[in-house]
Amino acid sequence: MIIIIVATSCSKGYIKFASQYTFKSSDGKPHYENLDYWAAHPYKHDTSDSIPKPLQKNTFQDSTVDIFFLHPTSYLDKAKPFGWNASVDDSTLNAKTDYSSILYQASVFNQAGRIFAPRYRQANIDAYYPTSTEEYTAAVKAFDIAYEDIKLAFEYYLEHYNNGKPIIIASHSQGSTHAKRLLKEFFDGKPLQNKLVVAYVIGMAVEPDYLKAIKPCANPNQTGCICSWRTYKEDYKPPFVLKENFVSVVTNPLTWDITQPGAPKEKNTGAILRDFNKLIPGVTSASIDGGVLWAEKPHFFGSFLLRTKNYHIADYNFYYLNIRENAMNRVKMFLGK
């Protein structure tokens, strides 16, 4: 049912794009001097450059800021054909990444600045659900390998492309697992924190004390801070959230203000659902409740078929234009300083 919301599920839909991915790593690792190992990069045309038709006339990219985007899991095959970590050369996985999360999520930021999104040896989805000590050990190793690639990509980016530019860190799901680690290692209390415009670490819990110097964003104009949310149907909290021994950082993407934890759907300026070129205002609301973001059942053509209470896959899509506008506003505030 969730495929009705966004075209980011079944791999079969991406096979038609797979033929364009013909590169092959000599050692199975990504090589970031090669643009093929960037899902998004300002030196090539890619799906992050896409702009929904209603926004095309008034979009002008600001190249003074860079966005380092970490994509979510597209390696969902429980048979694990590549083991616990995905191949960076698999054409179907690369097509799925580029025509789902890079198109529907990374493109949010293409007016705020230049987008860099590295391919990496992502962990299989099962790494989040180990069922034995052996699987837990394998899962930890898989996440470490994935982060090793991301760290290498970020270091390459800093050395060859950044040139002192301000940075936005943005991510979703598994990408946010790694973004937290990246922020802690490179930004938190480090000189690079002075270059951080904002971090959008979406779809994963962010412990309130995980970062020491980088604080949760308290208002829509604040910079150098972190935004995060996990979206579920109103009145629902999944069992794993109830077991968390902390209350995750939550930002309301319709108000961006800790003094306004709830907002009606009328504040939603535009969602992007299955049709990338159709911007739909008022799709759903947003309210903060104990570590998660609650949204009322979305309203769009065919939404009566929607039964899921987990809106994780639409964390960006439901609030597409609000995020886009907020990113540009924070860039303006940062540069104004």
Describe this structure in a few short sentences.
This protein is an alpha/beta fold and 337 residues long.
What does this structure look like?
The chain has helices spanning 91-104, 133-162, 174-186, 239-242, 320-336; strands spanning 38-40, 66-70, 81-84, 114-118, 167-172, 196-202, 225-227, 231-233, 262-263, 271-272, 279-280, 286-289, 292-295. The model is unreliable at 1-11 (pLDDT under 50). It is built from five helices and 13 strands. The longest helix is centred in the middle third of the chain and has 30 residues, at 133-162. By secondary structure, the protein is of the alpha/beta class. The chain starts with 37 loop residues before the first strand and ends with a helix. The strands form three sheets. It has a six-stranded mixed beta sheet, with helices on both faces. The protein has a four-stranded mixed beta sheet with strand order 8-13-12-9, with no helix packed on it. The protein has a two-stranded antiparallel ribbon with strand order 10-11. Helix content is 23%, strand content 15%. The protein has one domain.
SSE arrangement:
Blueprint: E1 38-40, E2 66-70, E3 81-84, H1 91-104, E4 114-118, H2 133-162, E5 167-172, H3 174-186, E6 196-202, E7 225-227, E8 231-233, H4 239-242, E9 262-263, E10 271-272, E11 279-280, E12 286-289, E13 292-295, H5 320-336
Parallel strand pairs: 2-4, 2-5, 5-6, 6-7, 8-13
Antiparallel strand pairs: 1-4, 9-12, 10-11, 12-13
